[in-house]
């Protein structure tokens, strides 16, 4: 849920609590993370790497991961996580918009980050430009729910949730933004990762694969 933007990111409270949250993810979320990275190869860009939770899941077929994490406290922990896995991972505290002048990526990974960027449409357009034609966008994201849960999400977004959780907005139509940026969605499904009674607005996740035509 870390933010990727053009400005400096500073979320001291979120940087303290996110490592605890990440270390206690449910097995359902961990399984979705593994599925999101399965079969990747070549050169990969990961946006909003947080503390590097995904790093252990990258397959050996990945040649290099450039992991973007603009929150400096989280980036420091991501660097430690990168040093403990076999796949070469370079952690940078640049924003997605700040990346440029490099060869296009074969794939881009977004995990619990598009909910927190200030300009999701602009970020996705930038990611589109960083991806080679035919390359994949792999995403695992909080998304807007319907009905009562959706109304609860809107209430959470309008009050304290974004302030406490690194600008996370739970009621975003992220997949519409992905399509609007020019991607073509190949596969997509939604999963509830918490019991229906759980009073959290982030239980519904979208797992999908989109590509740049």
UniProtKB/TrEMBL annotation:
InterPro entries given for it?
Answer: SAM-dependent_MTases_sf (IPR029063), Thiol_S-MT (IPR052356)
**CDD domains named in the record:** AdoMet_MTases
Instruction: Classify the source by domain of life.
Output: Bacteria
- A Pfam family per the record: Methyltransf_23
Question: What PANTHER family does this protein's entry cite?
Answer: METHYLTRANSFERASE LIKE 7A, METHYLTRANSFERASE LIKE 7B
**Name of the protein described by the UniProt record:** Phosphatidylethanolamine N-methyltransferase
- Native species of this protein? Mycobacterium saskatchewanense
């Amino acid at each position: 849920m870390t933010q990727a933007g053009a400005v400096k990111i500073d979320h001291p409270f979120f940087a303290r609590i996110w490592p605890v949250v990440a270390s206690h993810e449910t097995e359902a979320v961990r399984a979705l993370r593994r599925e999101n990275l399965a079969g990747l190869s070549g050169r990969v860009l990961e946006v909003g790497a947080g503390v590097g939770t995904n790093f252990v899941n990258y397959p050996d077929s990945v040649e290099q991961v450039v992991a973007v994490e603009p929150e400096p406290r989280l980036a420091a922990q991501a660097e430690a996580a990168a040093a403990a896995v076999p796949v070469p991972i370079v952690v940078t505290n640049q924003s997605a918009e700040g990346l440029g002048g490099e060869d296009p990526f074969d794939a881009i990974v977004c995990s619990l980050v598009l909910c927190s960027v200030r300009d999701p449409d602009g970020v996705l357009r930038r990611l589109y430009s960083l991806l080679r034609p035919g390359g994949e966008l792999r995403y695992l994201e909080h998304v807007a729910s319907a009905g009562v849960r959706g109304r609860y999400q809107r209430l959470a977004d309008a009050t304290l949730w974004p302030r406490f959780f690194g600008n996370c907005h739970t009621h975003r139509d992220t997949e519409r933004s992905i399509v609007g940026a020019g991607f073509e969605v190949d596969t997509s499904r939604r999963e509830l990762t918490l019991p229906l009674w759980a009073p959290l607005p982030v239980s519904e996740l979208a797992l999908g694969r989109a590509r740049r035509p």
